[in-house]
User: What shape does this take?
Amino acid sequence: MRGNRLSLTLLMVLFAFPSQIVHSQQPFRFGKVQIAPAQLKPGQSISLTGDWLYKPGYLVKAGEQPHLAMDLSGYVTVPVPQLLNRTQWWLDDSEDFKEFEEVRLKKLGFDTERAEDGWYQLAVNIPALPKNRRVFIEFDGVAMKSKAFCNSQLLGDHAGMFSRFGYDLTPHLRAGRNIISVFVSMEKIPASTLSLGQAVTVNLTASKILTLSKGMFGPLSPDANNRSYDLHGIWQPVKLVVRDAAMIDDVWFIPSLEGARVQVEARSLSGAQSAVLRARWTDTETGKVFATTEPVNVQLGEDNETRDLTLRGVQPKLWTPADPNLYRLDVTLTSASGKQLDHWTRKVGFRTFEARGNKFYLNGKPYWLRGANQLPYGKNSWDTALPRRLIQLMHDGNLRVTRTHATPWNEAWLGAADEIGLGVSVEGIRPWALAGKIGATPPGMFAHWLMENEDVIKRGRNHPSILLWTVGNEMLLRDGKNLEKWKQLSEVVKQTRRLDPHRPVVADSTYQREADFYNETLKPNNIDDGDVDDIHRYRGWYSDSPFVIDTVADIKDLTPNRPLIGQEMSTGYPDLDTGLPVLRYTRDLLTPQAWVGQDAYPGSDPAVFLEYNRAVTKRWAEQLRFQRSDRTAGFMLFSAECWFAHSYDARLVAPYPVYEAVRDAWSPVGLALETGRRRFYASEEVETAAFITNDDEQFRDLRGLTLRAAFVDERTGKEVAATDAIKIESLPYYATLRQPLRLRVPEMKEARLNLSLVLRLTDSTGEVSRTLDRVEVFAKPVQLAAPLANSRAATLSLGEELRQFINEARVFQNVSDEMPANAEASLAVLLIGGGDALKGLGRGGRVRELLERGATAILFSPGKGVVDLFPNDVLSVKNVAGEYADYAPSAGTKLTEGLRAMDIRWWGRKDDWRVFVASSAHRLKSKGTARELIRFIPAHGYIPAERVPEQYLTVLFEIPVGLGRVWVCDLDMEESVAVDPAARSLMLNLLRAAADSSSTKNLPVVPSHQESMAVRRKSITK
Assistant: This one.
């Protein structure tokens, strides 16, 4: 009994671990740090975060050798870690961030525009070291090239910003004052005119691709110079690590659901010796020891020895993004007599994540990824408060996974993801590395890529938050079947697997396996194309939105037994200052104008674009989810950086409306409305459905559910109408149910009212889930009191719905299929549906004759016919699924009376789940007589400047003919006029304005693109 007690006492002493890594040491100042004797215990880590001294290279005199100087006068203090030049990062149009950076750089105290390199100095006062004690300096990252010295002695050099490195200071240290000198330099990228073209937002030049990796750092503009991509500075933490006669080189925690294997690499620092390894896990929440391993004896020499510490038969609290249970893992290396030689500690989580078939499994359960990426890591990576703030917001917003996007996170960001709960796809360091047609990566650069990739994997693989390794972003852009490049990419994939075979690998974020290419080319050449297919889509930004596109279109041609995900699913980018679209897209590409028209421009109300971004992002997230079946494994919306104002500043960051929309859409139990309609008539009954998807965070089947839909007044928060409760007996985990739903729209007195349509799911314990969609309810249509005096309309080849509407609207005193007499031409409106009726517009035709005498003709969707009839005015016609049109060219006229700017958007349609306003659009000739009345810009991707004019189309325009006029209307009135209240309102305006020959006499002058952009220039120069 006594022996057992003695053993237990000895075990407790061994695991007391008096030497712990310091996590909260106060930063030092003025380039001086004092080390106390108590800090020199083996296993201790001493942070060197604080003010170092720095002299930029342009102030170093010829022949001066800063590493030899003990006099440090003439230096300025700069914070470590931090980059020493202007940080440019994806979506860099934020004026507030530019000011944020200007303030930061001004504090550095030297000309950062001029500096390309320089010298750091740090005075370290240290006591005499005990026998066998060693002190190492370890850098987590320095950009881009460095040389380090201790008391004038060269320690070594390093190139690359994403890999850790360190040196043994011990041979050069002396008791008292010591000087650590570090020379840092930009890579100094040479000038290059060889361009690979533009990939999404980054200018791809050979000089960027064929240089040291800088991840996503760099400007948005395609004409940026190489200096804008070059970086320098100690940008990641630095620390001193104290060890005794041996050291732990690496620890790899490999968890299972009932234990773990801990692989430890250790070596001697003082000849051959015997040592002992132990591991202990402590619950970080309770502080109680959870488990320990049996000691493992090891014989150490100069080379690393690898041993496994094994834990079996335990029941840990498992880590998930929803419940991020953590344990502190402590590994000690002691001498045979029990003296501590080194100590390693990290927070770890017990969890498994794997690909099986076409699904992911988290802790053995199917797990569909619900997330968003990227966060603004590169804008402020050294602020440890920022990841805590942003990741907590993401967690609270039901976002469970993210992608780092071409720049691996540091320990502060990954640690926050571990602790708060956010799964991470770590994307590698060379985006677009193999893009274009310039050949494979040169051997030396490729070897460097492998070196840095190895360190990225090794320093990340103990983090439970990391679920996926993604080698790179759009790696083979424009050269996707180049076998030489595939061999290089495959080598990186295989290296990643060797270093961590326990996580799925994405070879290329945007690669989807093609069966023929894989079987005929990749497989025979032993090419590893990863475990996962990964698509990029930009619905509602570069292409039609999910209000008109069924997501099934994006998830066809699936690879059997291979998960399909999307790590870049974007709906557009609010800027970080105001919420208006990011300026570059408005200025150079007209991208947001396709969705909100003139309200995209500087000086507009950001609420318009923010509401659009909210609605389309929510719709897409919901659709991706409820249509997944067993076909997809999860999606990440892009880009979370844009979902917050001032997302780079932990003090000021604030969510935009899209955040709350996605919080609903990605709720663990998802609710989604099937119909895309967002406008209804009072008292209308709508047959639709609700989709319910069970991704319960505890992997439970759900039973005894009740679904209810209610209309809520946005002004008062009170419920004004609701459906009957619908009982749902059960919903298995990971399943989706389509539940038919009849909406009863409330009665109302107002002509138009904003309401929230809330779906709410409950069980016996309370609310399980809810979702909210913003809708508008319009009063029931009423007939006009009296037709317009002396008005007459002739209807020719109209569809049934339009013909009925015109009769019931009572705008005209007389409606018939007969042509009016010549004498009545000036009072007549000719409503023409196309077909043979268009022939009358030709010269000598009856319609043409009436137009010459003053009639107005409205041509509904005439297609190419109007191009042939008016070749001097109309250039072309294009088939579209037009979701939005801008009435700015006719604002303030009878055409737009009573309409709101976003009314010509997402019209409900008869017998069609889609909601849109036009199926065709025309382009006018710049020197013709035609005038646009309602403007249309189709969804489009990146375009060169010369193609900008092509984007200006129209869905309602006027051509003068003699004393009369022709209005060409491409708006789908036939499909929408009886369904959508806004379509009905516009149609009434169209008829009334047509009956008034002067209604378009004075059209507003719409500012040109350049004039609209000038608002921003004026605001900046105030």
